[in-house]
Amino acid sequence: MKDIVSVDHLRVEFATDSGPVVGVEDVSFTIAPGETVCVVGESGSGKSVTSLSLMRLVEFGGGTIAAGALRFRRADGTELDVAAASPSVMGEVRGNEIGMIFQEPMTALNPVFTIERQLTDGLMLHKGLSQAQASARALDLLRSVRIPEPERRLKQYPHELSGGMRQRVVIAMAMACEPKLLIADEPTTALDVTIQAEILALINRLKRENGMAVLFITHDMAVVAQMADRVVVMYRGRIVETGTVDQIFTAPKEDYTKALLAAVPKLGEMKGKPAPERMRLIGDESARAARIAPVARKPQVLLDVRHLTTRFPVKGGILRRTVAQVHAVEDVSFTLNVGETLALVGESGCGKSSCGRSILRLVQPTSGEVWIGGRDIGALSHHDLRRARADMQMVFQDPFASLNPYRRLKDQVAEPIVNFGLASGAALKARVEELFDRVHLPRTFLNRFPHELSGGQRQRVAIARALAVNPKLIVADEAVSALDVSVQAQVLNLMMELQEDLGLSYLFISHDMAVVERVAHQVGVMYLGRIVEIGPRAAIFENPSHSYTRQLLSAVPIADPTKRRFADDLSFKPIKSPIFPLGHQPAPSVYTEVATGHFVLKD
């Protein structure tokens, strides 16, 4: 069978002020029909540049295909040299015969068009469908990617959806025209494990049914083990190793491949360990003790959340009256001790982020109490709340969106210090330099802008800014989910080091169960706005007692190609909606204590 894709000796250059910079050099591989080739490597290894070259989108980012051939076998059997194709031909191919799932869903979607418009445009252009036919197909696509209430979602705009839902819309768009080649650039980064398992099963099904070829770019080695037929390992723009998935996982030849596999946190490796443990770093072969010493201080409650409820209005009708409510957070209670980490886990849309924002009063809760350091945050005036924010800070999921692109990094880190009047002049300069040292960033970065840094470096700046006012509590909302294995390990180690040194408390919002097992002292599992199970990390992972917790853990991909799970092995529950009519009063949350400190919601 002839290959659908053949990349031969690809070289891509980027023009800079100091001369051309090589993005990828001498890259060659093929993809056959019905085959999945996974490209893995650290941030900056050239994975995305390779995929953008196949779509001829790299030139829109300042890149030039300087050498090599990119051959694509079209639906009619003819061979197209992508590097030499005219813009009109590429316009026919993009989205129709080659589909692409982009990494960042908010930038891949147009903020001024509805979800329906964005899904139907390509269908009407490439498939010649009528508006009604395209709308019906769009509805089917949303159902296939497991979006709850798809009829409502079609009429919404991207900003009205959660990050995980936006990513599913991007996946639906890429699959709309049933392309011969699907390029998936970190497609499941923003998705929780249950939705990720469903999306991977969906891609596998389409691959089998349509003979679709898949180029899958990821830094998650567990996903590679579940998806790949062949693996291409990249480092600094070059391919260092290639082979079947079994060869790469069981007998890797290159030291870099071995280090990449060793750095992946694996679910279950914390069994029997009493305290969180630092992540392994790529290339760090030292045998130093990575375990964090258990907190020696007497347990002291910093954060006390009592019956927190947050609801958002759903508007409808010509007069835009409130017709229903989204029960985003429903009767949530927990405590967090000084110097400890409580992880909130659950699938996209379960209320994790809304809970974190409600605690900081970035979102106004409907009812309930939040006490931080003995102060009732909900009862504070606007002026007092502003002063209290020095004790509570947030690190957001996307550091590029949370940093100002027009201001130098030193000014952004200094801003909270200036706002709270904590320092000025030479003292301010020294404090900012100290913060850069603290997060292991060189002082030469002080005068840089956000776009001049990698994702991991930007996230460190965000952490430095959060630390600037000496907070007691940091809410980390998916702070490492978009980072590759090596950078993720560095940022998490930094956060644990800061916790050890400064006694920081973290509310760690995440969907990555293996990371949570590594860093958390306590774990709360959320589903449809409620905490369904909460307790010490060991109790949740070693004795999951709620059916949803067990489902969540069973969906975690395993970094072992011999333990693959396909759609037939996964039992997916229908996704319930958190939207209820006005006046609906849910029953209060009642828990059973199954072990000391381990509580499970009564169904």
- Widest β-sheet, arrangement of strands: 16-17-18-13-19-20-23-22
At the first level of CATH, the class of the domain at 301-555 is: Alpha Beta
For this structure, the CATH topology of the domain at 301-555 is: Rossmann fold
Overall helicity? 25-40%
Termini separation: 54 Å
Q: Roughly what is the average pLDDT, rounded to an integer?
A: 85
Percent of residues in beta strands: 25-35%
Output the radius of gyration.
Answer: 24 Å
Judging from the principal axes of the Cα atoms, what is the shape?
globular
Largest sheet: 8 strands, mixed
Our count of helices gives 21
Verbal overview:
With 603 residues, this protein is of the alpha/beta class. It has a domain at 301-555: Rossmann fold. The chain contains 21 helices and 23 strands. It has an eight-stranded mixed β-sheet with strand order 16-17-18-13-19-20-23-22, sandwiched between helices. Strands 6-7-8-3-9-10 form a six-stranded mixed β-sheet, with helices on both faces. A five-stranded antiparallel β-sheet has the order 15-14-11-12-21. Helix 4 packs across helix 5 and helix 16 (425-438) packs across helix 17 (455-467). The protein is globular, with a radius of gyration of 24 Å. It starts with a strand and ends with a strand. The model has no long low-confidence stretch (mean pLDDT 85).
